[in-house]
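Thread: quick sanity check before group meeting

JM: Hey all, I'm pulling together slides for Thursday and realized we never actually wrote out the predicted structure for the chain we discussed last week. Dropping the sequence here so it's in one place. If anyone has concerns about the input, flag it before I start.
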Amino acid sequence: MSAATACMPLLVPPPPPSSPSPLHGSDGQPAAMAPAERRHHPRGMEAAETESHGSGGEERRRPEAEDDGVMSEPRAVVRTLTCERKVYVEGFAYWRSIGRTELPELDPILSFDEFEFSAPAAFLDHPHRGFENVTYMLEGGVSYHDFSGHKGTINTGDVQWLTAGRGVVHAEVPAGEGVQRGINVWINLAAHDKMVEPLYQDLASHAIPTATSDDGGGGVSVKVIAGECLGACSPLRPRTPALCLDVALRPGARLRQPVPRGWSACAYVIAGEAVFGGDGGAGAGNTSAGARTLVVFGGDGDGVEVRAEMEGARVMVVAARPHGEAVARDGPFVMNTTEEVEQAREDFRHRRNGFEMADGWTSDHAATYAAAR
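JM (edit): ok, ran it. Output follows.
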């Protein structure tokens, strides 16, 4: 939904029948979502629950072990960014933390947005290649339809982890009346993974593992979207190894979360006020952040620490293993060179190399908008 500006494809308000989207840096799964539904392209068929990926039978990578599962050295906060609400078009606004001038990327995280989505905005038929798109709904829902026949709605608390790989074409629209809210993150794929077969991993809210702890005396509840926390492990298998947690802390509560050394890590405060880093006290190493603020952690240390202030807090913690590769991106395509980006555009234009199913295809949403003109 929202890798706007440089990362974001073009968006179209209601009348026009087709267009690419910011739902990407943000996006959407099914009315009756299976607990851990995985679908491979290019046939739109559900994949078996195996550890193979794509039609080539490549081995699916499991999440890396978080060191020994115990954090001994919390990382310090090296940067804090306050996010401002920006209106992209009527019906779509976002708060961008990563993917802006001050922080173009946090390898491999390309963009990080909180978004609001409502009519008349709609992201109609548009392509993607070369990255993973994560959409996590905070309130309301987003409906989608792609060229393989994969369609549905992701609702409050649901997540969709889309590995775009060699190519996906889809549409996304608000699923109900009023404002739909969520988080959208783009995570880059390594060069050797950019042309893998696309894969949807959809997880309904009730199927996302939840872990709890009373550390700090106040209570911690964590939805483990990807990776592992407090002994709970998500069934999602990101192509780029990653950790994604929705952390709710009561006043005074604390979470100490292991993060593999060398991984990039950040935290976004959704609500309340949180304190990061340090020794659990009011030391100089602590950083306080309020709602719609992103903190970026330094590389030294084997984990992150977050505590809630008097009103409690809700925080999204995201970490991922960096690729250390050149990045070339333009609209919906993220590759390693400008030549590869242009090749992606040509492939989409000529409906080849992953975009064959787009030939003659129109999403249900685009057809509905066209009929309403």
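AS: nice. The CA atoms of residues 151 and 280 lie 45 Å apart. The first helix runs from residue 338 to 349.
JM: adding both to the slides.
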